[in-house]
Amino acid sequence: MSEERRKVLEMLQEGKVTVEEAMRLIEAIGGGGGTGKSKENTPLSGVDLSGAVLDGVTLDGARLEGARLNGANLENANLRDADLREANLGGTNLEEGDIEGAQLKGANLSNANLEDVNLRQAKGEGCNMQGANLEDAVLTGATFDGASLKGANLEDVNLRDADLRGANLEGANLEDASFEGANLSGSKLTGANCEDLHANAIDLSGLNLAGGNLEGARIEGACMRGVRLGGANLESVNFRGANLRDANLSGANLEEANFEGANLEGANLSGANLEDANFRGVDLRGADLHGRNLEGVDGRKGEP
To answer: Is the pTM of this model over 0.85?
Structure first.
């Protein structure tokens, strides 16, 4: 008997699953158990596996829409291409799991442990990931537009080419996260920690990052027209070649920031700390530099 089936039978003995649920789960794990059925045709829709211990289980391609998996242990589980739409995975442990290509639309993953999880190409439109731990997770090419990641831990996460349109990232930890090629239009980043963020050449136009911490971030060549960065900590940020036209940087800390070749036309820099910042080749036409600290500023161009 396989380890996976033994665990299911133990849950049955302990009253954690019904006989019907145990049979459906065993059939899904075994790919039909010689019945000719594939996992895709073994429905686990709405199954209650809350609190279940299924670490290392293989349920790739399984139909788990609406399933209750909250509080379950699915560490190192294989859920690749599984259908988890509207499933409840709140507080679930999915550490080091493989969820590549899974359907997660409308799923609840709040406070789940997704550390080092593979979520490449996953589809999580509108899902709830508030407070989830996604440290070191890989979400390249994933779709999480309209998702809530409020207060989530995304440290060292790889979000290259991910779709995060309209996502809520308020108060999230994005330290050292990679967003190259990601779509963040309309997303909310108020109060997020963006220290050492990698966001070269992406579109951040109009986003509200006021009061945020972006120290050491790399935003080279990014489009940041009209972005709100008032009062933000932008120390040592690399804005080289970025488009910051009409951006609000009032009261921001720009100490040792690199703006070489950037466009700051019409930007608001009033009250900002520009100590030791690099402004070589910068376009400052129409910029507001009232009350700013320019100590050690290098290579200003176009100052009113």
So the answer is: yes
